[in-house]
Amino acid sequence: MNQPEFDRYSASYLDLLKDPVRDFFAGKEPGFFHTRKRDLIRDYFRNKRIDPTGHDFLDIGCGKGELLSLLSHDFASCAGCDPSPAMIRSTQGFDLQVQSGLGGVPFDDARFNFVTAVCVYHHVPPAHRLGLTREAYRVLKPGGVFGIIEHNPLNPATRLIVGRTPVDANAVLLSASETCRWMRMAGFHIDQLRYFLYVPQFAYRRIGRKIESWLGKIPFGGQYALFGIKAITHND
Questions:
Q1: Predicted model pTM
Q2: How buried is 54 (Cβ within 10 angstroms: 0-12 exposed, 13-18 middle, 19+ buried)?
Q3: Which H, E and C letters describe 13-75, residue by residue?
Q4: Any alpha helices (H) in the chain, and if so which ranges?
Q5: Residues 6+ apart with CB under 8 A from 106
């Protein structure tokens, strides 16, 4: 059996992510990129006037569980899955499962209200991306939300960082339009597309959060977030 790709990176994962441009952007906050995603998810639910504290959350491709930890008090339950046993081994306190094969999600139908795949799809071969999206649809409850967060290939700094990061050696970036296409083909209604990561950490904590909310529709942020909703049918 072949060793999962990220098992090889697990012990030195943070060191392998280091890059001068990335480190400048994160500043003195090592977890900056994770907290930005947490803030964006919180903003989504706040703007929709949805209280997620009664909802069940699944993070597909959860890695070492950073996002699960940051959102652990926002949801009724948090679960994760990842193809790499070594990546999830150090994560405690969540329902964690190992994904087998390409695109399978090891949870029951209609179990979760909110599902994310954060910087996962660029590691999934294009031929398997629709299958993964359909799996996210399957494990969501009707009316549930799927959030995909990805690197924006239109941003030159993003392309530079990805191009020289060892863990992204086999990455194939995907545009927001491609991600929208997979969502629609899987049956989701596209609810919101937002670009973010325009300003570095030192600016974000001062005035950057407001600036980023203004720039969210301009397709040049370092990453983008796409939220889709699973339809509620008359049989549900």
A1: 0.89
A2: exposed
A3: HHHHHCCHHHHHHHCCCCCHHHHHHHHHHHHHHHHCCCCHHHCEEEEECCCCCHHHHHCCCCC
A4: 13-17, 20-26, 32-47, 66-70, 85-88, 129-139, 156-163, 176-186, 201-203, 209-215
A5: 81, 97, 98, 99, 100
Domains of the chain: 5-230 (3.40.50.150)
pLDDT of residue 1: 38
Question: Are 43 and 34 a contacting pair, CB within 8 Å?
Answer: no
Contact by Cβ (8 Å): 99, 106: yes
Kindly report the CA angle at 118 between 114 and 120, in degrees rounded to 5?
120
Average pLDDT for runs of 10 along the chain of length 236: 49 55 74 93 96 98 94 97 88 89 87 97 94 97 98 93 79 96 97 93 78 88 97 68
